[in-house]
Amino acid sequence: MIQYRVKGNAGQSTTMEIIEEHPDGYHVLIIREYDNFREESREYLSAELFETCLRTGYLTAIEADPSLMTA
Length: 71
Fold this sequence. Notes:
Strand order of the largest sheet: 4-3-2-1-5
Number of helices: 1
Distance between the termini: 15 Å
Helix content: 10-25%
Mean pLDDT: 88
Oligomer: single chain
């Protein structure tokens, strides 16, 4: 699965992962991490909104670390 970094507030790390793709959008898992707190939510994101977020830089793909991949 491809993960994306969500542009946001300082002190908070937010990532998004596409769980399921549909013709008109995506079901995504959003993970917000604060100091010692982790919050997960599942949302639906339209294809149009997803493309807009990529185009404007609100979402950026996170490169996979090859050392973490298994065969």
